[in-house]
UniProtKB/TrEMBL annotation:
Residues 1-17 form the signal peptide. It comes from Drosophila willistoni (Fruit fly). One of its GO terms (cellular component) is plasma membrane. This is CUB domain-containing protein. The keyword Disulfide bond applies. InterPro entries: CUB_dom, DUF7805, LDL_receptor-like_sf, LDLR_class-A_CS, LDrepeatLR_classA_rpt, Non-NMDA_GluR_Accessory, Sperma_CUB_dom_sf. Keywords: Disulfide bond, Membrane, Signal, Transmembrane, Transmembrane helix. Residues 90-216, 332-496 form the CUB domain. SMART domains: CUB (SM00042), LDLa (SM00192). Disulfide bonds join 52-64, 59-77. SUPFAM superfamilies: LDL receptor-like module, Spermadhesin, CUB domain. Residues 245-265 have a biased composition (Low complexity).
Length: 1139
């Protein structure tokens, strides 16, 4: 309760201005007729003459006393001028100054004065004299209260009226338990007190009237008009932000002690403190906040005031409220418009004080400005329960003769609680919310009471009507103002915008029906607006094609009936996965399933609100005798037991039941494991109907559900190649086409064939078969392979596309060059980032083409939207007619392009081994340009060739059965360049496990744009050499290839081995073929001849060497003689020189 009082204090700022000195004299105590202010006109004139203010009475001696002290049996003026003879307090107008509180009491009239009538007018004159009048009933007893609707005040009553408002005639009587507050909406409040009879004995005292009144400025009336400032909330900080639990307990004990001490003080001091407008007390709400003064001594609290405030839900600035436009001629009906730009508040008359009796107010809310493509919903709510209290107590009526309860009994019996529907019919004070602009629209909420948050009531359209009705008679018995200081209600208004095409609101209030048609998927939730009691909403989910169906294919009745082609009964099926279903407990009760950390499972089923799933189309809401609408034994049969036209319940969700759900997607919808079939529901036709039924208003008992729906598109272009609805292999036959113009074919869209549907690997084959003399033209214009890095590039030399990167998801083009031959790879496409070259077009050289749609290692992120393709196909006439056979077998061979038909030069050669255990080796004189290997992630090798090296535009394409493709620039046999391109069959490089590989060993050789070029290539069959060292090696082998070759390849005049060993002299000479004896004899003769020749040559050489040595001896002797002669001559010359 202490925390609740703090919240009340935070929402109010009191008028604390000190009274200014009187600058004008008060009006004289003149009288006026009933219902008319006595000094409303004469007051200002007299005040200006006497020097007293408008709120004061001018004494004869010149003193000024408050108007409330006139005729109070006290000589306040000192000269008795304020107590003239036969004076009365009735039929007068009372003013006040801001910051002052005035007391007023009416004495019990004498018997001869009955019937007693008294009119009191309280006016706020503006400026210093305030804008709003506050009147507090401290003690009230007028007659007896007997009924709320019929003659409820037989002895007397009090009526309250507003100036310039139409009188409504409601009456108050009986007694009050505590202070009761009234606030004016206009400048003046007019109280009319009438007592018809007095009690016959003193024990039945039936008249007591003591009040206090004051005037407030409009700026300080923040509860009604808003505009509270953040700075004003500094002293009301949230204690939890700076005090721990122990400090809070100590503070509460200290506060209780202070409060107890204040209660022990005299009544005069308490009255003065209560009437004084200070920062620690709010007279407006009857609350004592002086106990919070203990915070001034708390250092932590005082330090926090110096820090900048954080704008949160407890400390914030509220804007000025928009209270609507009063409808002319009405007392309280108002119109609100465009509350998305305003802070709209629906308030009871005279809020936050007591509202009048015998009135009906209409609050019409309408949203005019709606953004394009949006739909407006109006929401009214009040999350703060202390701002709502509508009379609902029955104490006074149920026990008319009982004595007034004690204070302790009052507090015990009072339990602030929001009541609804029939609980509000006794007093007949209630608020009704209509889903529309008239009272003929459905009622979505009816409540009274208070002390609890009012749940949000949301309209289904841009209009909402709130009706507030009160009974003609009322009493103040019931709640204590010390516990609940506010009366009436204040409702917040919000505007929500939803997509106009979304199934989040019902376009028609009756019936509530939604139609969802299409071929996609989405999330379906309960309506965003409130549903009236006993409502039923039907959701019709029906699959409908978005793409145009394949209408180029003509299926005659004879062909369809004889071939037994399987056609599904419906193109679509509906897949439902329920993520959440929740029905709150009855309003005001605790949810037993959420008590504690573990929770308690509810065992009793509650179907006050339920969701049923019907397999098929349900046109009207069903009228069922049981919850399942069928026998309990067959309620949960498998889907296969339903006929195509059946409409049966396949699931029912109620509070307390645990049907099939897939709630893990609520935690992380993107990365959660996809829902399986065992956790979902699949229709047997193209439609499912959801029935949402509630017996109570969803305002008080929310009914929430969330489910995923998906329309499974079973349509596939072309003809099936066998299997059922989950087989994606299709064929397109030229002889069954009505037209020969291009037609569209697309990838399969059945979600159960993809990763999100539970499938890891997928392979779909699209086979195109042309007639004789026709070719197939394929154009792939759209390819999507997201969630993996992969792109494709077009090789402009050969006009074919190849994939690079992660090729787990790809589209491949294959061609079957001859009947019963292998498929040859002709292209690959993937596109994960829109960087691939598209479109890609390929025209076949044969009649059979296949497009393979392959997806491997799929995850939950892969579905028909992320992995798909779209293309076009066309059967065209072949440009030439080739009759030359280009399918070759044998151990070896040589192909010469010089011979053969000119029309066949562009058709591929298919070289096949004689049996499956042999490999092929093809060798072509050409310049290597590039290689593409689809089995490797980095599947390409490029070598840039200079233009002078490749002078022709012709290209040779060598392809294996695996798709390994080598592009080369062919050279003529007369070319001086010694460059060759070679290729092996599939599996050759996978030795020694080649025996485990079961694949075709064929090789295709294709010349593109051959022209008149004279190109040749040769091939030979290979066998791998034995790997064991002790095994006998093959007789004919190419050592550099590590392969054994056929004997026919050896010495056939054509070089097959890269080193030329198969045509070497030692291998191919005729002498090597003689018998061994003759070869030995010839070798001996050859050796002897060589020896004889060597001996003869030795002798000759030796003879020559001997003659050369004699000559050298003679030359040496002659040389020595010449040297001696020369020495003598030199010696003689030296002597002569000395002389």
């Amino acid at each position: 309760m202490l925390t609740w009082l703090v919240c009340v204090a935070l929402s109010l700022v009191l008028a604390t201005a000190s009274p200014s000195p009187a600058s004008s004299s008060a009006a004289g105590p003149g009288g006026s007729g009933p219902g008319k202010p006595a000094n409303l006109q004469m007051g200002p004139a007299s005040g200006s003459a006497t020097g007293c203010s408008l709120a004061e009475f001018s004494c004869s001696n010149g003193r000024c006393v408050p108007l409330s002290k006139f005729c109070n049996n006290n000589n306040d003026c000192g000269d008795g001028s304020d107590e003239p003879r036969f004076c009365t307090r009735c039929n007068r107008t009372y003013y006040g100054d801001i910051g002052q509180t005035y007391a007023l009491e009416l004495h019990r009239p004498k018997q001869d004065r009955v019937p007693f009538v008294c009119v009191l007018t309280f006016t706020a004159a503006g400026g210093q004299h305030g804008d709003v009048v506050q009147v507090t009933l401290d003690s009230f007893t007028i007659g007896r209260f007997t009924s709320y609707v019929h003659e409820g005040c037989p002895d007397g009553y009090m009526q309250i009226a507003e100036s310039a408002r139409t009188p409504i005639g409601g009456m108050w009587c009986g007694s009050s338990w505590g202070p009761v507050l009234f606030y004016s909406e206009t400048r003046s409040l007019i109280f009319t007190i009438k007592l018809n009879r007095l009690a016959r004995d003193q024990s039945g005292y039936n008249f007591d009237f003591r009040i206090r009144y004051k005037v407030l400025s409009k700026d300080s009336s923040v509860t009604r008009y808003g505009g509270i400032k953040l700075a004003e909330l500094a002293q009301w900080h949230n204690r939890s932000s700076f005090l721990n639990q122990q400090q809070q307990q100590q503070q509460q004990q200290h506060q209780q002690q202070q409060q107890h001490q204040q209660q022990q003080q005299g009544t005069g001091a308490a009255l003065h403190e209560f009437t004084n407008s200070s920062g620690a007390r709010s007279d407006r709400y009857g609350q004592d906040f002086s106990l919070f003064s203990a915070y001034a001594n708390n250092k932590t609290f005082m330090d926090s005031l110096e820090k900048p405030l954080i704008k949160d839900e407890l400390n914030y600035t509220e804007p000025k409220y928009y209270l609507g436009d009063l409808i002319p001629g009405t007392y309280c009906s108002r119109i609100f418009s465009d509350c998305d730009k305003k802070s709209c508040r629906l308030q009871s008359p005279n809020f936050p004080g007591i509202y009048p009796r015998n009135l009906t107010c209409y609050y019409a809310v309408r949203q005019h400005d709606v953004p394009h493509g949006k739909h407006a919903l109006i929401l009214v709510k009040q999350p703060k329960g202390n701002l709502v209290w509508i009379s609902t107590q029955e104490t006074a009526a149920t026990n008319k003769m009982a004595p007034p309860p004690s204070a302790s009994d009052k507090d015990k019996k009072f339990e602030p609680r929001l009541k609804t529907w029939n609980d509000c019919d006794y007093i007949q004070d209630y608020v009704t919310v209509y889903d529309g602009y008239t009272t003929r629209d459905p009622i979505i909420l009816k409540f009274c009471g208070g002390g609890q948050a009012v749940p949000a009531a949301v309209s289904s359209g841009p209009e909402l009507l709130v009706e507030f009705s009160t009974s003609p008679f009322g009493t103040f018995t019931g709640t204590s103002s010390q516990v609940l200081p506010l009366y009436g209600f204040q409702l917040e208004v919000e505007v929500q915008f939803v997509d106009i095409q979304s199934p989040t609101y019902s376009k028609n209030k009756k019936p509530c029906e939604f139609w969802i048609r299409g071929a996609g998927r989405g999330i379906l939730e309960n309506p965003k607006h409130s549903l009236a009691p006993n409502s039923t909403c039907l959701y019709h989910l029906q699959g409908m094609g978005v793409f145009k169906t394949f209408d180029h294919l003509s299926l005659s009745r004879r062909t369809n009936s004889q071939s037994g082609i399987h056609q599904p009964l419906s193109r679509f099926k509906v897949w439902i996965s329920v993520l959440k279903f929740n029905l709150d407990p009855e309003f005001g009760q605790i949810d037993e399933t959420s008590v504690g950390a573990i929770g308690v499972l509810q065992t009793q089923e509650d179907c006050s609100g339920m969701l049923r799933i019907w397999d098929g189309t349900l046109r009207d809401p069903p009228v069922c005798k049981d919850l399942n609408c069928i026998s309990e034994t067959s309620a949960y049969n498998s889907l296969g037991h339903y006929n195509h036209n059946s409409t049966n319940v396949i699931a029912r969700f109620c509070r307390g039941t645990i049907p099939r759900t897939c709630d893990r997607s609520n935690i992380n919808e993107t990365y959660a494991r996809p829902c399986t079939i065992s956790e979902s529901y699949v229709s047997s036709s193209d439609a499912i109907t959801l029935e949402l039924r509630n017996t109570e208003s969803t305002v008080l008992r929310p009914l929430d559900f969330k489910l995923k729906y998906e329309f499974i598109d079973l349509h596939q272009d072309g003809l099936p190649m066998g299997g059922g609805e989950h087989d994606c292999n299709r064929k397109f036959l030229s002889n069954m086409m009505d037209r020969k113009d291009p037609a569209i074919f697309r990838s399969v869209r059945n979600i159960f064939l993809f990763g999100r549907g539970g499938t890891r690997n997928l392979k779909c084959v699209y086979k195109f078969e042309a007639l004789r003399g026709e070719r197939v033209r394929i154009k792939l214009r759209k390819v999507t392979t997201t969630n993996r890095p992969c792109y494709s590039r077009l090789d402009e030399d050969i006009n074919r596309s190849f994939c690079y990167g992660d090729t787990n998801v790809r589209i491949e083009i294959f061609e079957r060059p001859y009947q019963d031959s292998i498929l040859l790879h002709r292209g690959c496409l993937c596109n994960s980032s829109n960087e691939s070259h598209l479109p890609v077009e390929y025209t076949s050289t044969s009649r059979d083409v296949e497009v393979h749609f392959i997806a491997q290692n799929m995850t939950t992120l892969d579905d028909p939207d992320t992995v798909n393709f779209e293309g076009m196909f066309e059967f065209v006439k072949a440009p030439t007619s080739c009759k030359d056979g280009r399918r070759k077998f044998g151990p070896s061979g040589t192909i010469d392009m010089t011979f053969g038909d000119i029309e066949c030069r562009s058709r591929p050669w298919l070289i096949e081994p004689s049996n499956g255990n042999k490999f092929l080796y093809v060798r072509l004189k050409a310049i290597f340009l590039s290689k593409h290997n689809p089995k490797k992630s980095l599947n390409s090798t490029f070598v840039q060739a200079d233009s002078w090296r490749c002078e022709t535009k012709s290209r040779a394409v060598l392809t294996t059965s695996e798709g390994l493709t080598i592009v080369a620039c062919p050279l003529s046999p007369e070319s001086s360049a010694y460059e060759f391109v070679e290729i092996f069959s599939s599996g050759w490089n996978e030795r020694p496990n080649f025996a485990l590989v079961n694949r075709s060993k064929a090789i295709s050789v294709e010349f593109l744009r051959p022209g008149n070029g004279e190109y040749t290539f040769n091939w030979m069959e290979l066998m791998p050499r034995p790997t064991l060292s002790m095994a006998e090696d093959c007789q004919y082998k190419c050592a550099e290839l590590g392969a054994c070759v056929n004997a026919s390849v050896w010495c056939d005049g054509t070089v097959h081995c890269p080193s030329g060993d198969d045509e070497a002299f030692l291998q191919c000479s005729a002498l090597m073929k003689l018998p061994a004896e003759i070869l030995a004899t010839l070798c001996l003769i050859f050796v002897l001849s060589c020896c004889a020749f060597a001996a003869f040559a030795y002798k000759k050489i030796k003879r020559k060497l001997r003659g050369s040595s004699v000559l050298q001896t003679r030359l040496k002797s002659l040389s020595s003689m010449d040297t001696a002669v020369l020495d003598e001559k030199e010696r003689k010359i030296v002597v002569e020189t000395k002389i």
